[in-house]
Specification:
The complex is a heterotrimer of chains A (303), B (544) and C (334). With 544 residues, chain B is of the alpha+beta class. Chain B has 3 domains: 132 residues, D-Maltodextrin-Binding Protein, domain 2, CATH 3.40.190; 119 residues, Alpha-Beta Complex (Dipeptide-binding Protein, domain 1), CATH 3.90.76.10; 218 residues, Roll (Dipeptide-binding Protein, domain 3), CATH 3.10.105.10. Chain B has 16 helices and 21 strands. Chain B has a 7-stranded mixed β-sheet, with helices on both faces. A 6-stranded mixed β-sheet of chain B has the order 14-18-13-17-15-16. Chain C has 2 domains: 72 residues, no CATH class; 235 residues, MetI-like (MetI-like fold, Orthogonal Bundle), CATH 1.10.3720.10. Chain C is built from 13 helices and no strands. In chain C, helix 8 packs across helix 9. The longest helix of chain C is centred in the middle third of the chain and has 38 residues. Classes of the chains: A mainly alpha (303), B alpha+beta (544), C mainly alpha (334). Chain C: Its main location: membrane.
Chain lengths: 303, 544, 334
């Protein structure tokens, strides 16, 4: 779970069993075509592409240096010189948002990467080995899930010290249970299939069976969850930064920008408004795309 | 057996949840702070019709026993409830009679005799007399919990009395205090709110809970405290001084500065502290609002940790930093409430050295000094800051970022480390920082209260440092010690002037600003005179 | 059924013990000094040391943990280091504030969400369907702290129609019985207080409720669509039952099942979301309380409050499960 839930929590996320079947390459191609054909997921894909392009070409797109201050010109309203106005230190908000896209991608990749790797490993091991291993791992997961996630994230950052890196780690850790549970139940259903049993029968080592046969066949739910988690991770990290526990100055992180502008809400609302809109669009992009993926890859929801 | 324990743990937890969320009726009294009113049933009526002042602020009081706290929000309220032997004059920090009508000191500066008023009653109806003063002094010397007492009179765990040797009632209305060494600021100190005289009967009656049930002699009587929400005090009709003009004062806690200001704009509160600097202009433009500026007796500064190995231990580097920051520009971030500081002392205080010339802004000169110190290529360092605005520094984070940018010009790379207030204090007192923001509001209008506390080597102890520059100058120490025991103010002034020159030269600080903290109020509030020490009794103000 | 519930309750015990250990360890790993927080900037080292001794901060962790659990077992949640207030007493005020906000947000979400979802399903591909589903898509992607600030800017600063913060306007007096202000004002017949408390609830409630509202709307729509395609609905329609009767009596009843799960899940999540909402709207609830306590290293508050929140959280989840199984006859209790 995380600060803000996935857009469509799948009530049966932990019971994907009946839907998971080994997919042929033909099915993957079908799925891709389906995603592109769907209007909403196509829009999502476009937003993600725009985000990536913005991040790559940030220095070219930005009109100003994102951290250059001009105290005298602080709180300028949007104008042709400063497209989205200036903030409390006279920095150009447009340029800061453009450069902030790099940070958002970084957050998405690293935080979700942590959740993915740890979650898949734990879930995979728990599901594959079962018995007491499963018991221990799942009890730990239960304990983690007994915390409202933002509290856990806040506590983790408080321990680690406030910084963007630590916020990413905290958001990553908080995301672990979801991956672990999804992967576990997926593994449980794949484990008993004939080809896994065959692999084991010919004496393949556990690690090999797990990596080569079991996990690849749980890919669909993992991919869907990853995409949806990126949006959530960006939101969560922005929330932590908003509380002063994430990115530190002068990093142009969107949540921190928004938080720093709070004092001027009455006189310069644009300082708060635009970074929020940026967060919104990026999260929307990942959610739309993730929804599309789910529809395409998860046959159970196919209509 | 074990199983049963687990079970009872669970049942209890479940029970709490049920109790709390099912909200049984024994939670009925909103003033369960332990006042003897057993229910809150008198408060259904709205409060119009009588003059009520609603005062908005950012944080709740911690305790209403002034002898145990140091936070301004507690003092704001206790200032209404208690009187001290002497009080500060309305417009400055000279003392005037309060519970004591006159006083004199022996020639050796060791024996102080106070004549007390004979017409004072505590809010609980008891008469006030010399014995009550003795009781309070003795109480303060019973434990290290009485922070200010220890701090002002040099008391410690091993010597709970400090420089106060004895306090005696030498008559029904006469108290004699004997000191072990002369203490120049003694009388000033007695006027500080922590030395408010509490009703001995109430202290005994409430014991541990006294701080929720304060009883003093002041212009207002404590009424009700709803934690994190509001504290209400009502007019004391029998006050020996000027009886208050308003019937009631409600101190309301509204944490967010912006939200608090909106409440003021909409008229649901009458007065507020902790204004965002950006909102000052808005308030001034509002025909219903006024800005009242508190006289300045504070300083905000950037302390450089002189004890830390590396660049900050070099005087040249510290001077270079003083040269590399454009103070004039920095001050614009104070949005008109601050004046640039060049000394640790605020200019309103006697002993201020106006002959000192500030370093000024000169990047080239700064680079030269850095090169001379061997840091031509600059260095990496950190700046510890606190997250919440304070009176002397309304925008710590923004100010820090501006400094970060300016120091980049001379190749000093600053990492900003932001902590909440308590953590910041702990970290800086432990000397974790290279550079750190801090500030100080004067307690008693004596230069000793700034220079000795903030820059003497006595206060540069790891773990509890007031001197977070860890600046240890024997020369300065001698001057300050001498000034403490010297009773002649002219001689003391001379010593403090010299002290400031030393400090300027050694540059343990980059002094930033002295502020006049703004208070925004409805225009209906009149005759309000804010005091330099940070708070004042509200008996003189009125609502039109 | 009863056996199942008892079994689930017993399973919570190790989880809660784990939660308490995790909470305790985390808070003690945080650098900082609670004695300093309590005594403030002007305390001396000797004063700090004596307070540390008094609070038992110098004892080994295992003893401190034992003491913490022991006190909890005796019904003592401890005392805040910062305010010196009894934590149980503080929670008596703060928990109702949070629960009131959460329930209010949830009611908004359920009423609007289900309504929009049903209409959108019945009139699939209509303008209403398009608009409400686009709205729902947007809703799940909104940062609630941003939404909250923008609402304050629009509704408080610009239009001045709703109060920006708090639960009640100063000066309005209310007898508190339950500390749920809406309830209290009804119980005492204090209508001006009711109106005032309600207007204070609107903005934070809407901000907090937006995401569940969007999710419920989407969930309702898709499960309605699924149900309406099924045979018994077609049969009902074919038999000539009125359309709205079919929709509300038959389809919605069956479509409600998955929606219920979402509601349960969201309700727990709102407890977490309350931290941000309460911060923005200065809502004196438990989310802000524990957040500030973490920052201020108020060990007792963090320990007891998180344990309390986690307990509620798991109980709500459990309740959802039980309800789910109760409503869905296909699931057996074994």
């Amino acid at each position: 779970m995380s600060l803000q839930p996935n857009p469509i929590p799948d009530p049966d996320a932990t019971r994907v069993d009946e839907s998971i079947q080994p997919k042929s390459s033909r099915l993957w191609v079908d799925s891709l075509i389906r995603i592109i054909k769907s209007k909403t997921s196509f829009i999502g894909l476009c937003i993600i592409l725009i985000l990536i392009l913005t991040a790559i070409f940030a220095p070219m797109i930005a009109t100003h240096n994102p951290i250059e201050q001009n105290i005298i010109d602080r709180y300028q309203a949007p104008s042709s010189d400063h497209l989205l106005g200036t903030d409390e230190l006279g920095r150009d908000i447009f340029s800061r948002i453009v450069h902030g896209s790099r940070i958002s991608i970084q957050i998405g990749v690293i935080a979700v990467g942590i959740a993915l790797i740890v979650g898949v490993l734990l879930g995979g091991i728990a599901g594959y080995f079962g018995r007491w291993v499963d018991q221990i791992i799942m009890r730990i997961i239960d304990i983690m899930m007994a915390f409202p996630s933002i509290l856990l994230a806040i506590a983790l950052v408080a321990v680690l010290g406030p910084s963007l890196r630590n916020a990413m780690i905290a958001v990553g850790i908080v995301g672990v249970p979801q991956f672990a549970r999804i992967v576990r139940s997926a593994v449980l259903s794949v484990k008993e299939t004939e080809y896994v049993e065959a692999a084991r029968a010919i004496g393949a080592k556990h690690g090999r069976v797990l990596m080569q046969h079991v996990l690849p066949n749980c890919l669909a739910p993992i991919i869907v969850q990853t995409t949806l988690s990126i949006g959530t991770a960006i939101l969560d990290a922005a929330g932590l930064s908003f509380l002063g526990l994430g990115a530190q100055p002068p990093t142009p992180e969107w949540g921190a920008m928004l938080s720093d502008g709070r004092a001027a809400l009455q006189n310069a609302p644009w300082v708060v408004a635009f970074p929020g809109i940026a967060i919104f669009f990026v999260v929307l992009g990942f959610n739309l795309f993730g929804d599309g993926l789910r529809d395409a890859l998860d046959p159970r929801l196919k209509q | 057996m074990r199983k049963r324990n687990l079970l009872s743990l669970f049942t209890l937890l479940l029970f709490f949840v049920l109790v709390v969320s099912a909200c049984s009726s024994n939670s009925s009294s909103s003033n369960s702070n332990g006042t003897d009113k057993s229910d809150g049933s008198t408060e259904t009526e709205k409060t119009d019709g009588e003059k009520t002042l609603i005062f908005g602020r950012g944080a709740d009081s911690i305790q209403l026993d002034p002898s145990k706290i140091t936070d301004g929000e507690s003092i704001y309220v206790t200032n209404q409830i208690y009187d001290t032997l002497v009080r500060y004059k309305e417009e400055n920090t000279e003392v005037r009679p309060a519970l004591a009508t006159e006083w004199n000191v022996s020639d050796d500066g060791l024996t102080w005799t106070f004549q007390l008023r004979d017409d004072v009653k505590f809010h609980d109806g008891n008469d006030f007399s010399a014995e009550d003063v003795v009781y309070n002094f003795e109480r303060w010397a019973t434990s290290a919990e009485f922070i200010y007492y220890g701090y002002m009179f040099g008391a410690s765990e091993d010597d709970l009395g400090g420089i106060i040797e004895k306090v005696e009632a030498t008559g029904d209305y006469e108290v004699t205090i004997t000191l072990s060494e002369p203490n120049a600021p003694f009388l000033q100190t007695l006027a500080m709110p922590p030395f408010g005289i509490a009703s001995p009967e109430a202290v005994e009656k409430y014991g541990e809970d006294y701080f929720k049930n304060p009883v003093g002699t002041g212009p207002f009587v404590f009424d009700e405290w709803v934690p994190d929400d509001s504290i209400t005090v009502t007019k004391n009709d029998d006050y020996f001084g000027e009886v208050a003009n308003v019937e009631k004062v409600i101190f309301r806690t509204i944490p967010d500065n912006g939200a608090r200001f909106m409440e003021l704009q909409s008229g649901s509160i009458d007065m507020m502290t902790g204004l965002n600097p950006q909102d000052i202009q808005t308030a001034e433009d509002d025909e219903n609002l006024q800005i009242i500026r508190r006289p300045s007796m504070n300083v905000s500064y950037l302390a450089m940790n002189t004890e830390k190995e590396g660049p900050m231990s070099e005087k040249l580097v510290r001077q270079a930093i003083n040269l590399a920051i454009d103070k004039e520009k920095l001050i614009t971030l104070y949005e008109g409430i601050g004046k640039p500081a060049k000394n640790p002392l605020p200019p309103s205080l006697w002993g201020y050295n106006d002959d000192i010339e500030d370093y000024g802004y000169d990047v080239e000169e700064a680079k030269k000094l850095l090169a001379e110190a061997g840091y031509a290529d600059g260095f990496d360092t950190n700046l510890y800051i606190f997250s919440n605005p304070r009176d002397y520094m309304p925008q710590p984070k923004v100010t820090a970022q501006a400094i970060q940018e300016m120091l980049k010009e001379v190749n000093i790379n600053v990492e900003i480390v932001e902590n909440d207030w308590d953590t910041h204090l702990a970290a800086t007192e432990n000397g974790e920082h290279d550079m750190a923001f801090l500030g100080w509001t004067g307690d008693n209008g004596d230069p000793d209260n700034f220079l000795y506390v903030l820059l003497d080597k006595d206060n540069a102890k790891m773990g509890s440092a007031g001197n977070i520059a860890f600046y240890k100058s024997d020369e300065l120490h001698d001057l300050l010690k001498q000034a403490q025991t010297e009773m002649d103010q002219e001689k003391r002034t001379e010593l403090y002037l010299q002290a400031q020159e030393l400090i300027h030269e050694d540059a343990p600080w980059f002094p930033i600003a002295h502020t006049t903290p703004p208070i925004a109020a409805s225009k209906k509030v009149v005759d309000y005179v804010p005091h330099a020490t940070g708070s004042e009794p509200f008996n003189l103000l009125n609502i039109k | 059924m009863l056996k199942y519930i008892v079994q689930r309750l017993l399973m919570l015990i190790p989880v809660l013990i784990g939660v308490s250990i995790l909470t305790f360890s985390l808070i003690h790993l945080i650098p900082g000094d609670p004695a300093r927080s309590m005594l403030g900037e002007k305390a001396t080292e000797a004063q700090l040391e004596s307070l540390r001794a008094e609070l038992g901060l110098n004892d080994p962790y295992i003893i401190q943990y034992g003491r913490f659990i022991g006190d909890i077992l005796q019904g003592d949640l401890g005392e805040s280091v910062q305010s010196k207030e009894n934590i149980g007493y503080e929670l008596l005020h703060k928990l109702p504030a949070t629960i009131e906000l959460t329930i209010f947000a949830m009611i908004l979400a359920i009423v609007i969400g289900i309504f929009a979802g049903v209409i959108a399903a019945v009139k699939q591909y209509s303008w209403f369907d398009n608009i409400s589903m686009t709205g729902a898509l947007f809703g799940v992607s909104l940062p609630i702290f941003w939404l909250g600030l923008m609402m304050i800017w629009l509704l408080s600063v610009k239009l001045n129609i709703l109060p920006p913060s708090g639960r009640l306007t100063a000066g309005i007096k209310l007898d508190t019985i339950t500390n749920f202000y809406l309830l209290d004002s009804i119980l005492t017949g204090n209508w001006s207080a009711f109106k005032d408390a309600f207007s204070h609830l609107l903005m934070p409630g809407l901000a907090l409720g937006t995401i569940p509202m969007a999710i419920i709307a989407r969930m309702t729509r898709s499960s309605m669509l699924e149900v309406m395609r099924q045979d018994f609905i077609r049969t009902a329609s074919a038999k000539g039952l009125k359309k709205h009767l079919v929709v509300f009596q038959h389809a919605l009843k069956n479509a409600f099942l998955p929606v219920l799960t979402v509601i349960g899940l969201q309700f727990g999540l709102l407890l977490g979301g309350a931290v941000l909402t309460e911060t923005i709207f200065s809502w004196p609830g438990v989310g802000r309380y524990v957040y500030l306590a973490v920052l201020g290293r108020d060990y007792p508050v963090v320990q007891s409050t998180i344990l309390m929140i986690a307990t509620i959280f798991v109980l709500v989840n459990l309740l959802t499960d039980i309800l789910y199984k109760y409503v869905d006859p296909r699931i057996r209790f074994d």
